[in-house]
Amino acid sequence: MKNTLKSTAFRLSLQSTVISGASAMIISSVIYYAAGSAIRRELDRTIKNEQMEIVSGSEGGTGGVAQSIADELSESNRTFYALLSPSGGMLAGNLRIPPALLARWQGYETLTRADGLALPRHITAIRGLETTLEDGDRLYVAEEANGLLALRYFFAHSFWLYLTGMLALAMAGGFLLVRSALARVQAIALTSREIMAGNLARRVAVDGSGDEFDRLALSLNAMLDQIEMLMRNIQQVSNDISHDLRSPLARLRESLEISRLDAPDDQTEHAFDEAITQVDHVLGIFSAILRIAEIESRARREHFSEVHLTELLRDMSGSFKTVAMAEGKTLDAELEPGLVVPGDRELLEQMFVNLIENAMIYSPVGGSIQIRARAGAGRVEVEIADDGPGIPERERQRVLQRFVRLDASRHREGTGLGLALVASIASLHEATFRFEDNAPGLRVVLHLPRATQLPARDTLPDVPRPA
Amino acid sequence: MNEPERVRILLIEDDDKTVAYLRRGLAPEGHALSVATDGCTGLIQAAEGGFDLLIIDRMLPGIDGLALLRTLRTGKIDTPALFLTALGSIDDRVTGLRAGGDDYLVKPFELAELEARICAVARRRHSPGKSTRLRVADLALDRLSGEVTRGDRVIELTPREFHLLSFLMLHEGQIVPRRLLLEKVWNYHYETRTSIVQTHISRLRDKIDTDGGRPLIRTVKRGYCMGLHD
């Protein structure tokens, strides 16, 4: 609810409701005044004619006027007359005017029963004109004016009901309209979130209507194309550099190794070894960059086969258990038998080696590393957890980028490409992975798509096993 | 048994710097090195025979390395072949081995690594993989039954340790670089950051180099050497 109140959809529909309400009120007022004055003008002209007829049609004098009134009364029951002497006595007519009204009546007046008039049933209001004749008598001529009262009544009562109903409709309708428009904004937001999560190939949907959203989508897509191109350029540059520098570095390494053969003493030989180690480190970085580029080209997908993940992990955890023991740590593996995923065995192995080695490197002496694999709905879940320092939540996305190293690992040897490699291998396998807090430590959770289940095999495939 | 094998090598490589590197690097081992600098010459020389090992660069002028080896293999010439390449992609390695290559080295490589591979090929020539019993001093390993003994003592090994030990014993007297062990025993074609090889070697030593027998696994620069040492 709070979200709805804060949403643009709600705000916009409220604004439109207020605006349409206000304009409805302005238009109604104009109509009210225009219609009222038109009716009044018409009535006033009729009344004036009536009055002229009586005054000019009589032979003059009180008697003549009274006679004319009597004649007119016989013709119409919607017209009212009163002829009063200067002292206020009723001389002729059918309209009894209470003294209070008499005192204030001047010119045209619109009157109802509320003014103390006794009106016939079918008449709710009258409009009349007061004239003082030459002989001092006062003549009152009035016409039925139900229309004027109805108009006023409408604006005083029914109008509010109509207005409220209309505003409610405007509000609801506006909300629905705006929300459906904003659904596209929402879609754009979702897409951009996906792109930020690393799926650079995603684009905002365009429905071809050519409306504002379509144009927004088109320019966003153009911008994304640009960004993707720039990213590709950067990667291409780093790939090219790696590729081009490999040969001279290889050459350098060869020279160093040849020179080492002729080293006159241990000290010189040691210096050569040191230099070779440094060259190897740089070459390692370049190899990793080129490996990532190879993976990202997705060509390896053509070589996918069924990989027995359980065996791969059992085999691997066996090896690393030995390393863990030597380092005073423990490594436990809990592997569901028979897990098979489609993939590239070598790359999957490299990914898990990377993750397990990370866990090994960052867990303290006496710490423990846990490897767990189990089947889920249509997928395989692998967890690798350690009790080291972990990765702060705000850094978890960043560490997947190339060359990003957290301060905690800066003093350790490494290329800053390990997790970038893991991320690219995971993406090649359409696997998702996330970092969780192992409290303390880091837990990497991987979800791999699952291949059709094969019967569990308990033998190690590529290590000859003594009988 | 510890005598270095003299291996007749045909190097098919157009890059004269690499040729010079190998000439200089392999000289101390006493191998006979012939060189062909383009694919066609290499193909003719290799077809004429008389070599124990071909070292072929993947990228050659004329006929490229892959096509060259395929041609040789089609012509039933099965001289062991080792590919050299500047590229290190997985695809590259796999296609190289599929074309009939016995081994594969990515430039730059360590001389010790090349030497270990050359010796492996040479050994295969003398005892072409058929011998099931390996023996180094009083350490014996039966590749068929999986039994390992030192003197009279039976040694229990894990599958991985067994694999590691048999690889070392096959390369008796040679320097086996750590990287080669990672590749051949673990099938990891990349550097690891933990001491996976060292730890396994040290466990293996605990099992075989005890009971006062002379130590058989010696640590050398970047690798290990199996055999009796003075």
Describe the overall structure:
The complex is a heterodimer of chains A (467) and B (230). Chain A has 467 residues and is an alpha+beta fold. Chain A has three domains: 2-150, Beta-Lactamase (2-Layer Sandwich); 225-296, Helix Hairpins; 302-449, Histidine kinase-like ATPase, C-terminal domain (Heat Shock Protein 90), CATH 3.30.565. Chain A has ten helices and twelve strands. In chain A, the strands form three sheets. A five-stranded antiparallel sheet of chain A has the order 2-1-5-4-3. In chain A, strands 7-9-10-12-11 form a five-stranded mixed sheet. A two-stranded antiparallel ribbon of chain A has the order 6-8. In chain A, strand 9 (368-376) and strand 10 form a beta hairpin. In chain A, helix 7 runs parallel beside helix 10, helix 8 (309-326) runs parallel beside helix 9 (345-362) and helix 9 packs antiparallel against helix 10. The longest helix of chain A is centred in the middle third of the chain and has 51 residues, at 146-196. Chain B has 230 residues and is an alpha/beta fold. Chain B folds into two domains: 8-126, 3-Layer(aba) Sandwich (Rossmann fold), CATH 3.40.50; 133-226, Winged helix-like DNA-binding domain superfamily/Winged helix DNA-binding domain (Arc Repressor Mutant, subunit A), CATH 1.10.10.10. Chain B is built from eight helices and twelve strands. Chain B has helices at 16-26, 39-48, 65-74, 90-98, 111-126, 159-170, 178-186, 196-208, and strands spanning 8-12, 32-36, 53-57, 81-85, 103-106, 133-136, 139-142, 148-150, 153-155, 175-177, 217-220, 223-226. The longest helix of chain B has 16 residues, at 111-126. The radius of gyration of chain B is 19 Å and the shape is elongated. The two termini of chain B are 15 Å apart. The relative contact order of chain B is 0.11. The model of chain B has no long low-confidence stretch (mean pLDDT 86). At the A-B interface, helix 6, helix 7, helix 8 and helix 9 of A face helix 1, helix 4, helix 6 and helix 8 of B.
